[in-house]
Amino acid sequence: MKYFWLFLFIPLIAISFSACTEDGDGTENPPGTEDGPMLHFRFAFDETQDRLNNFGNVVEIPAGNAAQTPDFKEMSIHYIELAPTQWTQLGEGDVVYSGEK
Known about the structure:
little secondary structure; elongated; two-stranded antiparallel ribbon
């Protein structure tokens, strides 16, 4: 009984270390791609979406005022930056795309 835990522990360690493989530094191309990793951004436009104010809160259109609902067919993107928090300044986040200047 004294060696029971030892016989249980050694095979567990051997299995856990044999499951590890070295895949490189992670910069290799995924299978089936020639140009390397790709990131896709998809934009969906909904004309029934709630209107938001400058703080992101839902607002109603006041009586007597008019509003337009644009009909987007396409959209071009010139700059995409991922900001970790809402207080991150422009340019301090991770810039994933920047068009030609």
